[in-house]
Amino acid sequence: MSTQTVPIHVVHRLLKQAQRRGTDVMPLLRAAGIPGDIAYRPKTRVTIEQMAKVTRGLWQLTNDELFGIGPPIPLGTMKFVALSIIHAPDLREVIIRFCGASKVLTGVPRVKADFGATIARVEMDVSKLDDPEHLGTELLIALVHRLSSWLIGRRIPLKTVRLPYPEPPYAADYQPMYGRMPTFDGPEGRVALEFDSALLDAPVVRDEKDLAEYMSDQPGVWYARRDFGSTTADQVRKILERGLSGTWPSAEEIADRLSVSVQHLRRLLRDQKTSVSEIKEEILRDAAIASLVRGEESVDDLAVRLGFSEASAFRRAFRRWTGSPPGAYRSE
Q: What is the mean pLDDT of residues 142-147?
């Protein structure tokens, strides 16, 4: 099971859709194992599994894959779209089929593409979405970008992400989501993604069996960060994650594994708005939250496993990461 986590504002924005329908959201939180006393603290994070449970709860309430944000999209539509795309020979045809599906499926925002000589551009018309929290827009972008990347077995580095609304207070979370910071206040109702046209010839490397496994994690795949090892941060994270079951590698050891100098490694990570220590802290934070939510071990045992010299040091670090003590994350 994934140890990735999601910032609490994603839960808040999703639940506002239920509240706009007059729904009591506390049962949704309880069903997902999100304790009420941390649900509205700004630094709280939840696991992918908890986020998926909240989403499924809303699906059951709305019978709509976008939770009533726009014209209804019946449950199963996204799986149908994926099945119509899986046999495409390459990324170009994947995008063409996305565009075709958007023309014939009720409720799915229209997708258009422009394949230039050097830049490929994908536009999505979200003008008909009643989406004041912008979550529906973000999930649709994630679906197109992440499914396309997964199909060709490599992350599609985005040169541009243009969003049609002002920069929100949680904008920093877009960097790991899209691999770059978006530009805001774009044309009203229009989302645009741009990437290198050379990728259009990348072959699809998945089949229906792979797709069945991938979609079985729906809606978790909407929220999970997919690591295709295509950025320095991805590669560093993969090396560091081994520290969860052994010795944490030093920056020098990581640089040696990647055949670069320590200075060059730090420069590469700085360009990606991160560092070795930040990535390690994120891994520790997410592993701690996942263990506490699942009730896998005591706080003392968890502190030892994560490499802390004493439980008090772990408790201080956890409060710094989440704004809450470890015990607050034990689901009822």
A: 88
